[in-house]
Amino acid sequence: MSGDWDGDGRDGIAIFRPASGYWYFDYNLDGKVERSFRYGGKTDLIMSGDWDGDGKDGIAIFRPATGYWYFDDNLDGIVDRAFRYGGSTDQIIRGEWQAGNDGIAIVRPSTGYWYFDYDLDGRVDRSFRFGVPA
Q1: Can you say how many angstroms the Cα of residue 114 is from the centroid of all Cα atoms in its chain?
Q2: Is the Cβ–Cβ distance between 95 and 51 less than 8 Å?
Q3: Are 58 and 73 in contact (CB under 8 A)?
Q4: Which of 3, 33, 71, 95 pairs with 24 at a CA distance of 20 to 30 A?
Q5: pLDDT (tens digit, 9 = 90+) per residue, 54-72?
Q6: pLDDT digits (tens, 9 = 90+) for 111-125
């Protein structure tokens, strides 16, 4: 995955190894690990985003079995925010739904409904049906 890990305006890369839960970050694309830590597990879905609006990307894991999200805003391997939002069959996306920080959305294929959480407080800020149920 890619992300602007250090706020320099350019993306670096990260590798997540689900079997071990370890992350490896290369901030400046020199092939060297700048940071690594354990955060997540085998069945977690992962994404990057500027969750707190500081100009640096952090990471989030979504645990489909429980519907919980775990956010690490500053890449220190410590959960900064966690809440339940979604379920095991939902698809996840991120986007800058409001100016300042990235938010999340879940898409429920069975109904075609989208549920947006703009400010990452675990509550639906907007929902609507878009698409055909699968």
Answers
A1: 17
A2: no
A3: yes
A4: 95
A5: 999 999 999 999 999 999 9
A6: 999 999 999 999 999
Q: Which residues of 57-71 are buried (b: 16+ CB within 10 A; e: fewer)?
A: bbbbbbbbeeebbbb
CB atoms inside a 10 Å sphere around CB 32: 10
Whole-angstrom distance, CA of residue 77 vs CA of residue 35:
10
SS3 127: strand
122 class by beta-carbon count within 10 Å (0-12 exposed, 13-18 middle, 19+ buried):
middle
Dig out the tokens for 30 from the structure.
């020199």
- The counts of H helices and E strands in the chain are 0, 12
Token couple for 64: 């489909």
Please count the residues of the chain. 134
